[in-house]
Design goal:
The complex is a heterodimer. In chain A, the strands form 5 sheets. A 6-stranded mixed β-sheet of chain A has the order 6-9-10-3-11-12, with helices on both faces. In chain A, strands 18-19-20-15-21-22 form a 6-stranded mixed β-sheet, sandwiched between helices. About 2% of the residues of chain A have low confidence. Chain A is α/β, with parallel strands linked by helices. Chain A folds into 2 domains: 235 residues, 3-Layer(aba) Sandwich (Rossmann fold); 217 residues, 3-Layer(aba) Sandwich (Rossmann fold). Helix content of chain A is 34%, strand content 25%. Chain B has one domain: ABC transporter involved in vitamin B12 uptake, BtuC (Orthogonal Bundle). In chain B, the strands form 2 sheets. Chain B has a two-stranded antiparallel ribbon with strand order 1-4. In chain B, strands 2-3 form a two-stranded antiparallel sheet. In chain B, α2 runs antiparallel to α10. The chains are: A alpha/beta, B mainly alpha. At the A-B interface, α2 and β8 of A face α7, α8 and α9 of B.
Chain lengths: 503, 319
């Protein structure tokens, strides 16, 4: 092996948490000037490995060396000083400070013992120019989009004389153009000799930008591969630890929806955020919502669920007029919503799986009809089993579960309340391949049980797979409705891009 | 104009407006003398509120300020009257003790992950109780040094007076602005108040920053206690009850967001001055009960919190 080129080397790293061996003798080698994908299912140990590299956790065994010198980062500041910077999925910058302050926090240029604001702002502008960003660096960070904040975070990481740049799912909340410009910058940085660790759930992106791939499974190393010589199918089976049955892409029998009774209908409905649109869902039908980020998918879910009020138009549930002014009314009427931002809007972090699950049912019954503890336990146990939620105990706080399992708990929460219409906003975001397939399986099952579903997703292949009807959103408007056999990725893409129908 | 300075402008203009209103209504109100008296009467509050500003910017709160003011006054007066200390070493001791007191509260908050509210509430009872134990009676201060310092100052036109406590308050203000906006510690304090977790991941030393902030606040409270003793010429264990709440009110009226991360030290000065001008207005009027001050300040607080809510809400929408 070419050791001269080795930048960061982890050998036999062990990390144990009470009851779990999160990392069991993992090796990882990052070379200078490469983009190295770190892959694995949720719970495989990717996050733990990164946290060990960046000093958030202390390792319990093994060696880490940077440029052949052993290192022992004790905290993130320490790791940064050594040249290891991390950009997280949720941008971890300070929204209240200016762009320039965010870039230089901790390393502000000084003059006569004072922070030299003028120089700091000038240097910030110069730095961002290297990323083709022309921003007002004196404006607060939160005036910019997540994509730009992410680039600012990368710029910060690199400017802190980074040798190693770790990108932890940086693309999860970016749209296609933004991803492309991120990749361009990643390649430029690679060519400057920086070693980049790239964690993602999008396998296409791995092949688009990575040189080598390291796969982890259950806290152990599966192997290190050249990206060019590993097929996507092999990669997935390495990640899952079993040969994947060829992903089922054959079309399901489309429910003959129009003949059935409408379950929920919007007629000319408008909210503060959306222009007037129509929408109808029947029982046993899956309506997909497609569109780019910010196109109005989430806003549509919010409108249906009563988070955003109806400004004009009409909503009907089972043929009856309804006008939800808050989500509680929607819940009582039999709706459920799995929100896009699971962490912020979905889970009650420190509460147990059981408590998270009974939440919706209890709310629906009202607080004076307490669900007996025995019933709660039964319910939780039943759903843990039914949805294959990987946990040792239903009393475990939900924030200790992986993303996919959290999503399943939220699904269970609504299923326990026996809804008639479920809204799933990006149900598979940030979820690994295995859980992804299970959630799609679940969507189909629910549909077969006669539930109406509205599913917003940015992954077209997945929409095509389960939708009976796809509504395409653009610029907060409904631009197309595709149903039946017309549902193809190409057709949806054309609608998103605003091209006329090819036929 | 930068949008982020908006609350600061609002506070400054409100002060100018109130002062102008008083000047129109009462003869002699619109003078430099009345203006300077606002500083003389509120110097200790300005100092305490500046310390509070840092705590609130960092996302915390300090309820021990009033008690610390009383405690430092009592310690100084007892050391001087009962033990014959010169004021200067007594001041030094009080400032060091105050700083240590704040630092330990900060350490407890950080290392035990406790709510600042409850820790400083405990600090408040502790300091108040300790000052009563040291002396239940008010201890008068008689020392030529005190007379000299209290008399020290500069005559300004119109019979206005720039006294020693005003000078101290202004120096503290200048240093605090420097600390908040021109040092790395300042950036860290804002960062901590913005998002503590992100700040930690960006390499901000959370422990050191938290401890510094509370140490600074208690140092300022001890200093405010010294300035207060020049004003009252005594140390009394029941003095300055509720001053921490006045300080919090001044910080909020000064445009600092109570949840941390946004605000300016200069705003706090105007927050105190607004409270002072309301008080002056009521004493000029002569017919109103002085409790009207509290009512007006209550209303102002409410208006400012509503204004912040509105600004924050608008800021998020524009994203």
């Amino acid at each position: 092996m070419n050791t001269d080129n080795t930048l960061l080397a982890l050998r036999g790293v062990v990390k144990t948490f009470p009851g779990v061996k999160a990392l069991d003798g993992v090796d990882f080698t990052l070379r200078k000037g490469e983009i190295h994908a770190l892959l694995g299912e949720n719970g495989a140990g990717k996050s733990t490995l990164i946290k060990v590299m960046t000093g958030v956790y202390r390792r319990d065994g093994g060696d880490i060396s940077l440029e052949d010198k052993p290192i022992h980062p004790a905290n993130t500041g320490d790791a940064q000083n050594l040249g290891i910077s991390t950009v997280y999925q949720e941008v971890n910058l300070l929204p209240n400070l200016t762009v320039a302050q965010n870039l230089f926090l901790g390393l502000e240029p000084k003059r006569f013992g004072c922070i030299d604001w003028r120089r700091m702002n000038r240097e910030a502008r110069e730095l961002l120019a290297g990323y083709e960003l022309d921003l007002d660096v004196t404006a607060a960070l939160n005036t910019y989009s997540v994509a730009i904040q992410q680039l600012i975070a990368i710029a910060r990481g690199v400017s802190m004389s980074a040798k190693v740049l770790i990108l932890d799912e940086p693309t999860a909340s970016l749209d296609a153009d933004e991803v492309a410009s991120l990749f361009k910058i990643m390649r430029e940085l690679r060519d400057k000799g920086i070693g980049i660790v790239f964690v993602t759930h999008f396998l296409d992106q791995v092949y688009a930008v990575c040189d080598r791939i390291t796969v982890l499974r259950n806290g152990a190393l599966v192997g290190e591969f050249e990206a060019a010589s590993l097929s996507q199918q092999d990669l997935v089976s390495h990640m899952l630890g079993k040969a994947l049955e060829k992903a089922v892409h054959e079309k399901i029998e489309h429910a003959d929806a129009e003949s059935r009774d409408k379950l929920f209908e919007l007629k000319g409905a408008r909210s503060q955020a959306l222009e007037a649109l129509d929408l109808s869902v029947s029982a046993g039908q899956v309506v997909g919502l497609a569109g780019l980020l910010g196109s109005g998918r989430t806003e549509l879910c919010k409108l249906v669920f009563g988070v955003d009020g109806l400004v004009a138009g009409d909503a009907e549930l089972n043929g009856q007029h309804v006008r939800f002014t808050n989500p509680r009314q929607a819940v009582v009427a039999g709706l459920g919503l799995c929100p896009e931002d699971r962490k912020k809007d979905g889970i009650f972090g420190p509460m147990s799986i059981r408590e998270n699950m009974i939440m919706a049912l209890q709310n629906k019954r009202g607080w004076w009809r307490y669900i007996p503890m025995k019933k709660q336990r039964e319910l939780a146990e039943r759903y843990v089993k039914a949805l294959k939620i990987a946990t040792s105990d239903i009393e475990k706080p939900i924030n200790q579960l992986s993303g996919g399992n959290q999503q399943k708990v939220i699904l269970a929460r609504w299923l326990a309340a026996e809804p008639r219409l479920m809204l799933l906003d990006e149900p598979t975001r940030g979820i690994d391949v295995g859980a992804h397939a299970e959630i799609i399986q679940l969507i189909r099952q629910l549909c077969a049980q006669g539930l109406g579903l509205i599913v917003a997703s940015s992954e077209l292949d997945e929409l095509v797979e389960f939708s009976d009807k796809v509504i395409v959103m653009r610029d907060r408007r409904k631009v197309a409705e595709v149903s039946g056999n017309e549902i193809t990725q190409q057709r949806i893409m054309q609608a998103i891009a605003g091209q006329p129908q090819a036929s | 104009m930068h949008k982020k300075f908006l609350p600061l402008y609002v506070t400054c203009s409100l002060f100018a407006l109130l002062f102008a209103a008083g000047a129109v209504q009462f003869e002699n109100f619109g003078s430099l003398r009345v203006f300077m008296n606002l500083f003389t009467d509120n110097a200790f509050l300005i100092i305490a509120a500046i310390g509070m500003t840092f705590v609130i910017l960092s996302g915390g709160i300090d309820l021990s300020v009033g008690s610390t003011i009383a405690l430092s006054g009592v310690i100084i007066s007892v050391l001087m009257q009962n033990y014959g200390w010169h004021p200067l070493p007594a001041f030094a001791l009080v400032l060091v003790l105050g700083t240590l007191f704040g630092a330990s509260m900060g350490a407890i908050i950080h290392y035990y992950q406790l709510q600042p509210f409850i820790v400083t509430l405990a600090g408040m009872f502790f300091a108040r109780g300790l000052s009563s134990v040291i002396s239940e009676e008010s201890v008068p201060i008689m020392h030529s040094f005190y007379d000299d310092v209290a008399m020290f100052g500069f005559e300004l036109p119109g019979g206005a007076w720039l006294g020693s406590s005003t000078i101290i308050a202004l120096v503290v203000l200048a240093l605090a602005i420097w600390l908040a906006n021109f040092t790395r510690l300042g950036g860290r304090v804002y960062g901590l108040g913005g998002d503590a977790q992100s700040a930690a991941l960006m390499g901000v030393p959370i422990a050191r920053t938290t401890i510094s902030v509370y140490a600074l606040s208690s140092f300022m409270a001890a200093l405010a206690g010294i300035v207060f003793s020049f004003y009252t010429f005594s140390g009394y264990s029941l003095a300055a009850v509720g001053v921490e709440l006045d300080a919090i009110a001044a910080v909020v009226i000064g445009g600092t967001l109570l949840t941390g991360g946004y605000g300016y030290v200069l705003g706090t000065l105007f927050g105190v001055l607004i409270m002072g001008v309301v008080q002056t207005y009521i004493s000029f009027d002569g017919t109103l009960s002085s409790w009207w001050t509290k009512i007006v300040i209550g209303l102002l607080l409410f208006v400012f919190i509503a204004l912040q809510r509105y600004l924050v809400g608008r800021g998020q929408k524009s994203r």
